[in-house]
# Entry
Amino acid sequence: MEIVASGIRPTGNLHLGNYFGAVKSFLQMQNEYQCYFFIADWHSLTTHPHPDNIRNSVKTILAEYLACGIDPEKAALYVQSDVREVAELYLYLNMNAYLGELERVTSFKDKVRTQPNNVNAGLLTYPSLMAADIIIHKAVKVPVGKDQEQNMEMARHFARRFNNIYGVDYFTEPASFHLSAKAVKVPGLDGSGKMGKSEGNAIYLIDDEKTIKKKVMKAVSDSGPTEPNSEKPEPIANLFAMMEIVSEQSTYDHFNELYNNCSIRYGDMKKQLAEDINLFCAPIRERILDILANEEYLEKVARQGAEKARASAAKTLSEVRQIIGFRP
Ligand code: ADP
Ligand code: TRP
# Structure
């Protein structure tokens, strides 16, 4: 069976971008593939070197994954730092990762700009840790959002390079996986760009009705089209893109028609959008709160996931050690 791996950093709660960009694929994939889904807590140290309460953040994301419907009986659901083999593979990959290529990664360059006082080696080698996460299970499919393309390209480089350097055909190059032909980009509602934690524009699965409404009602819009069938400027296109993701097709068509005949009232559209987002989030939110209250269950899931992931990781690592020339 084909193997799938993907992770999310525990630097905040899960938001609609995470859900529609990644978790939604996880839900489908867990039924068809052997899946490894994890919480990338080591990765979060690259930007948050002194995590406030990392155990708590990890616990929350775990509950959120479960509330979304990840089934720990089907997929291995684990915490990255529970699988130390990943760190050893990261070490080997780093020996064959070059400064020049790492420095060229866009997200690294962005971070150099946004956190100039903490340009650490972990940040630089983020792509080799991510590659280790993936190839430690010999995963071939990786469900991620559009923003991870460059990291995925690096993972393929590292897998191929390992084979070349050691003269083996051991790792398969992993491919990004998207549910639809086009990768989903969940927009922010603040005028431009994507929804993200770091963008400060996220609508979280755990947000309550009031919070959702407040966030949606303050979405950037304009005074409305003056010509029928005119092109939508980015903030408006983003509102529609969000509606396309969370609302019924007929709702989308209704507002699209109002836009096209210049009679749209964005206040009405936002109200509907907030309602639809709440309809989607409310049952997940309830489950998150239930699961969070059940420490014992969360502990059991993490333990069971770590065991499954460690078994797969240990096998790969023993073979990798042998290939390089160490004792297996
Ligand atoms: P954030 O950008 O909020 O920090 P992460 O980088 O932790 O979120 O992303 C975790 C996963 O969610 C990745 O697979 C990423 O591609 C996906 N993702 C995050 N934001 C979006 C978005 N706005 N649209 C689509 N996918 C997204
Ligand atoms: N870099 C990913 C993100 O920011 C998180 C991540 C870490 C990941 N390791 C991974 C995703 C392995 C897929 C596979 O969203």
Summary: The mean pLDDT is 96.
